[in-house]
Design brief:
By secondary structure, the chain is mainly alpha-helical. It has a domain at 21-248 and 347-365: Orthogonal Bundle (Cytochrome p450). 51% of the residues lie in helices and 6% in strands. The chain has helices at 25-36, 39-58, 78-94, 97-101, 105-119, 129-152, 172-183, 189-204, 207-219, 222-233, 253-257, 259-272, 303-309, 348-365; strands at 165-166, 170-171, 236-238, 249-250, 276-279, 286-288, 291-293, 299-302. The protein has a two-stranded antiparallel ribbon with strand order 1-2. A two-stranded antiparallel sheet has the order 3-4. β1 and β2 (170-171) form a beta hairpin. The longest helix has 24 residues, at 129-152. It is globular, with a radius of gyration of 22 Å. Bound molecules: protoporphyrin IX containing FE (HEM). The site of protoporphyrin IX containing FE (HEM) has 24 residues, from α1, α8, α9 and α14.
Length: 369
């Protein structure tokens, strides 16, 4: 379907193409991801993420030294952190059953994520058996969850009156994706599972490590930490009450609007994200300055190179007032962790909330040195 669809991502199909509307997969993917990762849907998703993470952290696990109330030294803190954040992100988006039905999902997920560089080289299974097996395991897990969700909740009930979230499908977006995929008449269960497998990767493979870098950059700089912590604390609407077993609640708005918190976020992404943005002029040759990109040629833009080796021409000395303001003005084409142009990644607002939200929740419950 992807190879066959030459109609573009816009609502209006590229002139001269004839893919039926219900099979315009590029456009549909793009339009739905914009719709369900912004506005009300985004607010619901982000609020669920924060509250699921807070609920999980508030539960005392007697077997976890971190919950002992004493200072503990942990050799590698990343797995501890990662597993809580990915569980909250996965539950907020896909509901609790994907993880419940597949208790090894987290481990399988990272094994699959690490296999992607091998899989995209398209080695056959006999040359890369572990990478293929990692993908097959994840696909089977998503299929199992799809079958269970279909049995328990009607995915065709996904219009305006449908709840924004249900425990079987998670976000309404997943029901919409399922119905669209079914309606193409082309996708079988493997195809449907592949689509949502890709979404598990999109949702966590970058955002979870970036949330950790956000934590590291703040906590490893005591001067910065002392400025940021009071900001993070302003997002707490009800503090945790350990005696009553009551988790804290949060409203992230002041953190999301904080120039300091946002500038750290932007720097973390500039410094720590390294992706390849891929483009292809698929209808005619494309001219950029002195270069002509031939129709059908692939172009790859490395975000890390762009982030480290370009200088802005910004010279705003006269505007350097004491009032802080966050903006990415004048950074067009330079600050590109999320890509750019029409394909600029629509979930950036959720990624931002995952990064800032996870550190805000963590900072409320723990001290870390
Ligand atoms: C720090 C975290 C993240 C980074 C750096 C990132 C980066 C990107 C980039 C570079 C693209 C391709 C854009 C292009 O080609 O210009 C993309 C696409 C996409 N990402 Fe992310 N992403 C992150 C988190 C997320 C999250 C949390 C989600 C979902 C909840 C998500 C869902 C998607 C989707 C659905 C697309 C395809 C969009 C389309 O077809 O229009 N991403 N992302």
């Amino acid at each position: 379907m992807y190879f066959g669809d030459n109609s573009g991502i816009e609502a209006k199909a590229v002139p001269g193409t004839s893919i039926p509307g219900h099979q315009r997969i590029w456009h549909n993917q793009h339009a739905d991801s914009v719709r369900y990762l912004t506005g009300d849907a985004l607010r619901g998703l982000a609020a669920r993420f924060t509250s699921i993470l807070s609920d999980a952290i508030a539960k005392v696990d007697p077997s976890d030294p971190v919950d002992s109330g004493e200072w503990v030294t942990i050799e590698d803190f990343y797995p501890w952190w990662r597993s809580r954040v990915i569980a909250a992100a996965t539950t907020a988006m896909f509901g609790p059953h994907l993880l419940r039905l597949n208790p090894n999902l987290e481990e399988d997920f990272w094994r699959f994520a690490d296999s992607i560089p091998t899989l995209v080289k398209r080695y056959p299974a006999w040359m890369a058996p572990r990478a293929h097996a990692a993908r097959a395991t994840m696909l089977a897990s998503v299929k199992k969850w799809h079958a269970y969700a279909r049995e328990n909740s009607d995915y065709t009930f996904c219009g305006d009156k449908a709840p924004k979230w249900d425990e079987y499908w998670g976000s309404l977006w997943l029901k919409v994706r399922q119905r669209w995929g079914q309606d193409t008449g082309i996708m079988n269960d493997d195809g449907l599972a592949s689509e949502d497998l890709a979404l598990t990767i999109a949702a966590s493979a970058n955002a979870v490590p970036m949330a950790f870098w956000y934590l590291i950059e703040i906590y490893c700089d005591p001067a910065l930490l002392s400025r940021v912590l009071p900001k993070l604390e302003t997002a707490v609407t009800t503090p945790a009450s350990p005696n009553k077993g009551q988790p804290a609640t949060f409203d992230l708005s002041p953190v999301l609007a904080s120039p300091l918190a946002q500038s750290i976020y932007a720097e973390v992404l500039r410094m720590r994200i390294s992706l390849l943005l891929n483009r292809c002029p698929d209808h005619k040759d494309h001219q950029i300055g002195p270069w002509t990109l031939k129709k059908g040629a692939y172009m790859t833009l490395p975000t890390a190179h762009i982030g480290y080796h370009n200088k802005t021409t910004l010279s705003e000395k006269k505007d350097m007032t004491p009032k802080m303001r966050f903006s990415t003005e004048h950074l067009e084409g330079i600050w590109v962790p999320y890509g750019g142009g029409a394909l600029m990644y629509p979930g950036r607002h959720f990624a931002k909330q995952e990064m800032m939200g996870s550190v805000t929740v963590f900072a409320h419950y723990y001290d870390w040195r």
